[in-house]
Give the backbone structure.
Amino acid sequence: MNSGATPDKPVLDSKCDDVNRGEALLIEEMRQELADSQSRINSLRIELQRAENEVYKIERLWEILLREKSSQKKIAKVAYLAISCIIPDVIKWLLRPLTRSLRRIFRRFETSTQITAYQVRLAPAGQPQKRVLHAIANFKTGGSSRLVVDIVEGLGHLYQQEILTGFIPAPIAYQGVAARECRSPYEMAAFLKRFQPDILHVHYWGDVDFGWYDKVFRAADEVGCKVIENVNTPVVPYRSQLVQRYVYVSDYVLRHFGRSGESSIVIHPGSEVEFFSRKGASDSPENCIGMVYRLESDKLSLQSIDVFVEVAKRRPSTRILIVGDGSFLDPYKEAVLAHGVANSFSFTGAVPYAELPNIYAQISVFVAPVWKESFGQVSSFAMCMGIPVVGYKVGGLEEIVDDNELLAPVGDSARLASIIIKLLDDRKMRHLIGEKNRLRVQSLFSVEQMIKKYETLYRNVIDECK
């Protein structure tokens, strides 16, 4: 039997070798197809990024042409955007040194009000320190930038922290912290290799800034960084295997944009309760409403001013404070003039962070007429001061206010005006709501609690990655 089986063995071995070679060739073909597909996806992603950037420029150009009054500022912004839309990419690359200089010159036109930069308070560093690099699309005044600054201040004794950003305004909004402006993935990768962060903390916005964040993640992938991704706006996160934790700024954002099975947590932005405080209920002012926002389309709309106009018409004695700067400032001023209620309004423009408590101290009812909201830290500032917060029932605002009687359907300015007037007419009710707000911020939205949560998060991620 053995002698009969022996001659068949080479034949079987040959067949096995043919099968193995066939499997190897098939696997190699599949790998090549996968690599080609990935290359095509990357090419499409780059093209999509370019298209998004061009669409954004055109939208900004159209917005400036329609909304802003004729001025040197308008001419400069229109010229810069128009030229950037028509120059080919090859020429743009050759002109990069010049365009960088021009961007620095024209940044002064981005805001009509120059304010004093906030001085970041750095604690004495302990040794040795781990390194955290914060990545944020721009480092202008705003809720996400403030969140970064709070973490830098709160954890500066434990971590060496720097900031990677796509845009630093002139004049700068924050000073005393190391911030580097990068737009090229090559520059980003070089900086990451030099700084060698233990954690890359990405503060993600998506939308028109997707392209910049995509470059950050590609650079991080090249270097091999461990990433924490904050989802600071109501958008789908940037999905990447590099991300160790997705941090959502509200239950609302997690619920609507998170994904089951991901390592996700909620950490609400924290407010300085003591800084935003009032001595007592007797200090609460009468007959003044207001809002504090960057006057741009990311949260507000041109119709956001309607509720204030409605209150001014129905209650002419009410004083109205509009705090903030942006492309909607002139249209809002024109709207109140057109309705004949300009005497009721005060437009302050942008104000320094240090002056915000004095602004809030003048307000009886804080109004949040937003169409989109992930959290809304300006509302929690008002709650620290014991001020009722009202607005439209949208996004994370419902989570913050925790009282549907204070929220109107989105865009229903008449209903929201009625809620405001009812509160203005009832001092006792305002004080009861204000006290509830103060306690709610202390228990849920204080900066101290936020810092403790980020400290635990950083420690856990670093320990897991050892």
